[in-house]
């Protein structure tokens, strides 16, 4: 039995989708459960050369033998969820998805409030998906829950019971967190944060398991961290500099250009302590050093690539066990 939580180590956009998909393929968990805020986080998953941008369905969907669960702590936009179920029809999502009956529901009014609130949309850089206003209503005890929504009834269940039963039966469970630790309402660069905590502890609570059930916490860092929207970014480089390095990216949800910076070892150490990290996954090593592209054996990495990995381990104090060297699942070094 292994319960693993995957957490973003920066401001989101770390490439968690690739890492989660790889772990689902390699470790074959019986359940992949999603924690986090809601549809304000987008993950890009590439399967056989085809890219899928998703915001609600757990990114472990390519493994057809895994159940997919959305925990009670996650806000659900029924419109977004149903569109994704339809888009991913060939992966048989309808028969595998469990939406916790206690998930909060985002309504049109929440999205309108999000977009019309100048403080959120302009100053903070909200995604406009309605998550913040919906979480306000949840705190005020006026929010609709998934059990109140007719179109969601075929998918409703008790995610906490399902996960705990699986763990009691000795099955592997993977919990995927959304956003990044530095967007946490409590530990991020407030007020330029999301509307709840985004660390491993909260993701466990989102899906209804206790801390003693967690075995591994994998924190994902991108070799060049990125950030969408406003807020501090200590190691940020100029757009001109990022263009020279070929680092031009756009957010999955908003389409806004991502700000790019250099790896911040001090922040990475803090993030690993906040999450109780047992392992680090590094993505986009091929962007740090193009000669590392597609390499699957650590010994074949360039000296530059190896030195970067070694420096992370020494300065952050957590072993790097998974290294992504390209977008495809097989372009991965697994040192576990």
UniProtKB/TrEMBL annotation:
Top-level class of the enzyme under EC nomenclature: ligase
Required cofactor names: Mg(2+)
Molecular function GO terms recorded: adenylosuccinate synthase activity; GTP binding; magnesium ion binding
Cofactor binding note of this UniProt entry: Binds 1 Mg(2+) ion per subunit.
Pfam families, sorted: Adenylsucc_synt
Domain of life, per lineage: Archaea
Keywords: Cytoplasm, GTP-binding, Ligase, Magnesium, Metal-binding, Nucleotide-binding, Purine biosynthesis
GO CC terms in record: cytoplasm
Entry's Gene Ontology BP terms: 'de novo' AMP biosynthetic process; IMP metabolic process
InterPro entries: Adenylosuccin_syn_GTP-bd, Adenylosuccinate_synth_dom1, Adenylosuccinate_synth_dom2, Adenylosuccinate_synth_dom3, Adenylosuccinate_synthetase, P-loop_NTPase
Binding positions for GTP per the UniProt entry: 12-18, 42-44, 258, 284-286, 324-326
Catalytic site positions: 13 (proton acceptor), 43 (proton donor)
Cellular compartments annotated: Cytoplasm
Residues noted as binding IMP in the record, renumbered to the chain: 13-16, 40-43, 127, 141, 179, 194, 256
Pathway assigned to this chain's UniProt record: Purine metabolism; AMP biosynthesis via de novo pathway; AMP from IMP: step 1/2
Binding site for substrate: 252-258
Major subcellular location class: cytoplasm
Positions of Mg(2+) binding: 13, 42
Enzyme Commission number(s) from the entry: 6.3.4.4
Catalytic activity: IMP + L-aspartate + GTP = N(6)-(1,2-dicarboxyethyl)-AMP + GDP + phosphate + 2 H(+)
HAMAP family: Adenylosucc_synth
Function statement: Plays an important role in the de novo pathway of purine nucleotide biosynthesis. Catalyzes the first committed step in the biosynthesis of AMP from IMP.
Subunit relationships: Homodimer.
Family: Belongs to the adenylosuccinate synthetase family.
Name of the protein: Adenylosuccinate synthetase
Species annotation: Methanothermococcus okinawensis (strain DSM 14208 / JCM 11175 / IH1)
Primary gene name: purA
